[in-house]
Amino acid sequence: MQNNTVSTDDLVKENDLVLAQDPKNQTALMYRALIFYNAEKYSEAINASEILLSVNSSCSFAWHIIGTSWGNLGDQAKAVEAFGKAVALAPGDPNEYNVQGVAYSRSGKYPDAVNAFLKATTMKPDYATAWNNLGVTYRYMNETEKGIEAINKAVAVDPEQASFFANKGYLLLDKKDYNGAIIAASAAKKIQMTNVPQWFVAGDAYFAQQDYKDAFYSYDGGFTTMQKNDLWYYQGIKNTRITQNMEPVEAYYQSVASNVRFTGEWDRVTVIEYKLKRYKDTLDVYDQVMTINSDPGEAWRRKGYTALKIEEYKSAQDAYTRARELLPDDSDVIASLGYADGKLGDYLTAMNLIDEGLKINPNNGRAYMQKGEIHSMYGEKKEAADAFSKALEKDPHNSDIFNALQGIQMSQGDYLGAAINFFRGVIGF
Fold first, then answer.
1. Are 167 and 198 in contact (CB under 8 A)?
2. Which is nearest to 330 in space by CA: 298, 303, 283, 290?
3. Most CB contacts within 10 A, which of 13, 92, 266, 333?
4. Mean of the per-residue pLDDT values for the chain?
5. pTM over 0.90
6. pLDDT at position 290, please?
7. What residues contact residue 29 under an 8 Å CB cut-off, 6+ apart?
8. Beta-carbon neighbour count of residue 324 at 10 Å?
9. What is the 3 state secondary structure string of 225-255?
10. How far apart are CA 365 and CA 392, in angstroms?
11. What are the C-alpha distances in Å from 75 to residues 79, 82, 88?
12. Quick check: 24 and 57 in contact, CB under 8 A?
């Protein structure tokens, strides 16, 4: 069986053969930059693009490669500068305005991003991705209604994009329209189960409605999906690889493999022109980066909290352990990890961690509540009462504390006290 796999080194060697015959072959130079970019060798892609510019200073494609490469290297200022030059060289191309808008948005220059997206959608009213990116940017600007309006336009043009519905879900969460957010997340899920953000949209919506069981399973689905797609957030890059879903490029590979010196194939199979039709979408799917919770530590915390609510203590322990790695000085995370440990039978670790959390924040009423519950679980009634007294002193309106105290009083036969704290939990006082 013949192996038709072509490595990056193979492509570079083939490219060397073409450039050896004509060092100023622009198509070959464009393809060289593309080879490095698709191999995620961004510095080399930038260098190759600069050589291309030395041959053709008006090549917008070169600036596009430079912009996307700098974006992936984390230098958004240089990415913005490069896309500005690409736009200047191709002022009639809505795709260039779209990626310029994404670069602006990732740089926090939201008004500039909005202007770029509006130019793109004015030139091309059915440009769904640009409408979607505009909606995401409006979200960062707290322009919720404008964001929803823009996303709705994206969905109207292309109703088969899960990320559009997930983005709409986040906007509806901001609006506190939790049922609407769940509906949007469900729509995304029907299109693409592996869309990570929709799981967290649903989780946040259920969490806000205090439906902790559904919230827990939604967060769990999101984290499971993320773990199975450990590079899911680079989907934008992966989808633009020249080897994916591009039959003309595959035909090119086969022809080169059979005769690397047949340089006419470079021109006859319009690799670069074909690529350009999709290459402008490179940054489009960064919506997932822009919309997914930018603080995964907070997401792990919420999963841990909901796991405690449904008494999934092992899951809570795992979630808070992961949250602690990202939030090492967070009093609530540390104390809650201790509480989960205590519920799993490790009394000493529980108390040490809860005390550590209280040392960081002595006013953490919830940590005192957790300490009281662990004391009670191990039969230490006086210590439990003292801890609950401290909890109410620090946080006198926390219904969770009253509910926890009610449960302990019920287990101890103090039905009157339990009834009183039940009603106090309802009114939060």
1. no
2. 298
3. 333
4. 80
5. no
6. 54
7. 19, 48, 51, 52, 55
8. 20
9. HHHHCCCHHHHHHHCCCCCCCCHHHHHHHHH
10. 7
11. 6, 11, 20
12. no
Residue 43's identity, in one-letter code, is S
Element (H, E) at 333: helix 331-343
Distance CA(377)–CA(198), nearest Å, equals: 38
Report DSSP letters for 62-128, one per residue: HHHHHHHHHHHHT-HHHHHHHHHHHHHH-TT-HHHHHHHHHHHHHTT-HHHHHHHHHHHHHH-TT-H
Using alpha carbons only, how large is the chain's radius of gyration in Å? 28
CA distance 51 to 123: 31
Query: Counting Cβ atoms within 10 Å, is residue 85 exposed (0-12), middle (13-18) or buried (19+)?
Result: buried
Q: Taking Cα atoms as reference points, which of 406, 411, 405 lies closest to residue 389?
A: 405
Question: Sorting pLDDT into bands at 50, 70 and 90, what band is 72?
Answer: confident
Contacts with 350 (C-beta within 8 Å, 6 or more apart), sequence order: 338, 339, 341, 342, 343, 374
Q: How many CA atoms lie within 13 A of 2 on its CB side?
A: 5
For residue 209, count other CB atoms closer than 10 A to its CB: 14
Are 130 and 121 spatial neighbours (Cβ–Cβ below 8 Å)? Answer: yes
Handedness of CA 227, 231, 236, 238 (dihedral sign): negative
What Cα–Cα distance (Å) separates residue 170 from each residue in 76, 135, 165, 229, 300? 24, 10, 9, 21, 18
Distances (CA, A) of 187 to 156, 175, 420: 14, 18, 44
Alpha-carbon distance of 318 to 333, in angstroms, equals 12
Task: Judge whether 288 and 233 are in contact, CB under 8 Å.
Answer: yes
User: Can you tell me which residue has the tokens 């193979």?
Assistant: 10
| 267-302 pLDDT, tens digit each | 444 444 444 444 445 455 545 555 555 677 888 999
169: amino acid identity, one letter: G
Closest CA to 100 of 124, 80, 73: 80
pLDDT digits (tens, 9 = 90+) for 49-58: 999 999 999 9
Angle CA(126)–CA(162)–CA(113) in degrees, nearest 5?
Answer: 50
